[in-house]
Q: What sequence folds into this?
């Protein structure tokens, strides 16, 4: 299993994340890949201080944004490597809000539904999460919009925990154009177009301690990217 975490100015959380990884790690083959998306604090220095084979540091030198960071990390982590098509890849937000133990829930869900992809869902009936009223409204409104536009019947496509088989990502990664917040949506639109089985799973989130990335600017960027994804979908781009 390879766990990819995008991080930006997370110097206060890196050591805690590594401790969480050590408590969770179940096999020697498990690796954690930190992809630094333009940090200006000591994030890179702290990651590099953990001089271990199972901790990899990648700097995203391309367009900044969560989507760009995840795509860069996946391509660099797999390039030239002999990795089984069934290998598991996990995308996990790097702010420490989602405990590594949640990965086991996704593993069980993948086995239960024989799924190719599993997404953590904050609004699953068995999930435990706390969000501000404003953020909850924005999230629900966006989810309704993408249900109508794309027919994706998932309660939460934007959650920061997702699990994939390598063959699934390999078949769509070249189709992913979004660099920022709508990266998750485009990934799911592309995977759905290929006919992969996608299941959602409950998760438990720690209380949010940072202000998050929701702003007027981020909402407008996400809206524009969503329209662009819809236009590409209508032309059959993802098939």
A:
């Amino acid at each position: 299993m390879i766990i990819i975490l995008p991080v930006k100015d997370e110097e206060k959380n890196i050591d805690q994340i590594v401790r969480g990884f050590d408590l969770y790690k179940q096999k020697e083959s498990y690796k954690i890949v930190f992809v630094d998306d333009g940090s200006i604090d000591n994030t890179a220095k702290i990651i590099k201080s953990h001089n271990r084979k199972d901790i990899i540091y990648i700097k995203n030198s391309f367009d900044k944004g969560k989507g760009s960071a995840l795509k860069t990390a996946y391509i660099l982590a797999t390039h030239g490597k002999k990795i089984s098509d069934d290998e598991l890849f996990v995308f996990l937000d790097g702010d420490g809000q989602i405990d590594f133990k949640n990965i086991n829930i996704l593993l069980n869900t993948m086995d239960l539904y024989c799924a190719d992809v599993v997404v953590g869902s904050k609004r699953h009936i068995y999930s435990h999460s706390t969000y501000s009223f404003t953020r909850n409204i924005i999230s629900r409104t966006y989810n309704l919009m993408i249900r109508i536009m794309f027919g994706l019947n998932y309660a939460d496509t934007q959650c920061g925990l997702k699990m994939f088989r390598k063959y699934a990502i390999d078949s769509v990664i070249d189709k992913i154009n979004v660099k920022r917040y709508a990266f998750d949506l485009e990934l799911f639109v592309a995977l759905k177009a290929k006919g992969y089985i996608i299941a959602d799973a409950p998760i438990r989130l720690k209380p949010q301690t940072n202000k998050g990335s929701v702003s007027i600017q981020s909402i407008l960027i996400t809206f524009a990217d969503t329209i662009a994804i819809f236009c590409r979908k209508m032309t059959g781009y993802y098939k």
User: Anything to note?
Assistant: Strands lie at 2-7, 31-36, 55-59, 88-92, 117-121, 161-165, 198-202. The longest strand covers residues 2-7.
